[in-house]
Amino acid sequence: MSLKQRIPLLRWSFLRMALGVRNISTTGQIGDGREAAVLDWVVANARRGDIDDVIAKIDQFAYEKSFLINVGDEKGALLDAAVQRVDARQVLELGTYCGYGALRIARAAPAARVYSVELAEANAAVARGIWEHAGVADRITCVVGTLGDGGSTIDALSTEHGFAAGTLDVLFLDHDKNAYLSDLQGILDRGWLHKGSIVVADNVRIPGAPKYREYMRQQQGVLFDTVEHKTHAEYQTLLADLVLESEYLG
């Protein structure tokens, strides 16, 4: 890994991302076209139908072309391990972005049906294109919406996609950090988790999800058994981050 790759402040695409924080919160994109560009890069450079190569090419794009805000390779390995510990049949990801997290989940749980909720239709289109190129579009469904929209998206997951009491094996939180706790509580209210379900939360330190982290501390040994993984923010080694892996105790 080069110095520029290890230290994000040396990369213009990282600084451009910082300038586009407001865009991310409203449109789900940084605002310079990098999300569409990663789809073009994958189609041009990754072997069709090879999920490993597609994941590798997205990582290469994020290191060498434009910084991306998906979970990344280092934290992605933690996600892989968590998913592999469960015999997953149904997985829900909140925050699709360009489809990278769902790809890793689909690879780690080849028998699972993966559902990914994304606020931005433009991101959903990019993700679907990447999944199709990787050969897993038949196993991943993107639902455009947000669990904080008053109930329409969570109702659609229930009525259209078969989410019901005790059916959700893995929940991956990688969207609006302020919504982590409220969205988890909405899922708990529906009873979708079962004893042994795993909840993985990215970016708990950067940008940070303090209310979610405090909740998991309060529920340690009660509703959840949580491990805090010390790691780095995506695609660099300068900034520390936390990934929380929580097993639901039922």
3D architecture notes:
There is one protein chain. Strands 3-2-1-4-5-7-6 form a seven-stranded mixed beta sheet, sandwiched between helices. It has twelve helices and seven strands. Helices cover 46% and strands 20% of the residues. The protein is of the alpha/beta class. Helix 4 (34-45) crosses helix 5, helix 4 packs parallel to helix 8 (121-134) and helix 5 packs antiparallel against helix 7 (100-108). The termini are far apart. The chain has a single domain, classed as Rossmann fold, CATH 3.40.50.
At the third CATH level, what is the topology name? Rossmann fold
> Between the first and last Cα atoms, what is the distance in angstroms?
42 Å
* Helical content (DSSP H or I, runs of 4+): 40-55%
Largest sheet: 7 strands, mixed
Order of helices and strands: HHHHHHEHEHEHEHEHHEE
Shape: globular
Q: In CATH terms, what is the architecture?
A: 3-Layer(aba) Sandwich
CATH homolog superfamily: Vaccinia Virus protein VP39
The average pLDDT value, as a whole number, equals 92
Question: Can you tag this structure with a few keywords?
Answer:
methyltransferase activity, transferase, SAM_O-MeTrfase, Rossmann fold, globular, 250 residues, Class I SAM-dependent methyltransferase, S-adenosyl-L-methionine
